[in-house]
Design goal:
The chain is mostly helical and about 230 residues long. Helices cover about 60% and strands about 5% of the residues. The protein folds into 2 domains: about 10-100, Orthogonal Bundle (Helix Hairpins); about 125-230. The chain has helices at about 40-45, 55-70, 80-100, 105-115, 135-150, 155-195, 200-230, and strands at about 10, 20.
């Protein structure tokens, strides 16, 4: 299965009937703001390449510039259609910036765009990822031992110390995953620059998806340890 190509279409201006590319916000013919209608994706909407390492300063500048152009205050005396278009574009812009601004949500959004399914934090599988089997086995042993100590009325310092020790290899695994995500992100950007083929892109996207899902699982494990420490 090939990765979906970026959506390219033409939007029609409801004011003059003229056509405009999907990533244009104002009609080239009559200069009226265009209704959101069909659009491309968050990357094209913000005018940035579909990459994972972005210039955050430039991204913020683009966001602020578009925010000023779309702000409903500038369309207070405009037609109802223009006011609605302003609200729609402002709302979509905020969603786009919120998603693209952070590296991990940017990766998740790219994977969804490319047809690699959900990688949201809540999508971590209940099945232990093979790469984490050893750490999860050791962690479960420590959790059981800590719970036994608590039931027996042992001092909190003892079982809390065991949990803190159990957390260390999980945190080390998370740090290793962060480095892997950075490396894979750089590889993806290099493939985009080289206009690489579908097979190479899919290999990197598959690895990214696997790392993100494992990262979500690791974060769930750490959250579980934190709950044990605070209850």
């Amino acid at each position: 299965m090939s990765s979906p190509a970026p959506v390219r279409t033409v939007q029609i201006c409801r004011s003059c009937g003229g056509g405009a590319p999907v990533d244009v916000h104002f009609c080239p013919q009559c200069t009226k703001i265009l209704t959101l209608g069909r659009h491309g994706d968050y990357f094209s909407y913000l005018g940035v390449p579909r990459k994972l390492n972005l210039d955050i300063v430039e991204l913020e500048q683009k966001f602020r510039s578009l925010s000023r152009h779309f702000h409903p205050d500038y369309f207070y005396n405009a037609t109802p259609a223009e006011r609605r278009a302003s609200l729609e574009r402002s709302s979509y812009l905020n969603d786009a910036y919120r998603t693209i601004r952070l590296p991990i949500s940017r990766i998740g959004y790219l994977l969804e765009l490319e047809g690699f399914g959900t990688t949201s934090p809540g999508s971590a599988s209940k099945e232990v990822p093979p790469a984490l089997l050893e750490e999860v086995f050791a962690l479960n042993e420590e959790l059981d031992a800590a719970r036994d100590l608590r039931r027996e009325g042992a001092p909190a310092e003892g079982w809390q110390e065991r949990l803190q020790r159990a957390r260390q290899p999980i945190e080390a695994k998370r740090d290793a995953h962060e480095l892997q995500l950075q490396e894979l992100s750089a590889r993806w950007d290099a493939l985009v620059d080289a206009n690489a083929g579908d097979q190479e892109r899919r290999a990197v996207l598959g690895a990214l998806r696997e790392r993100v899902l494992e990262r979500n699982y690791i974060n769930n494990l750490l959250a579980g340890i934190e709950r044990e420490l605070t209850t």
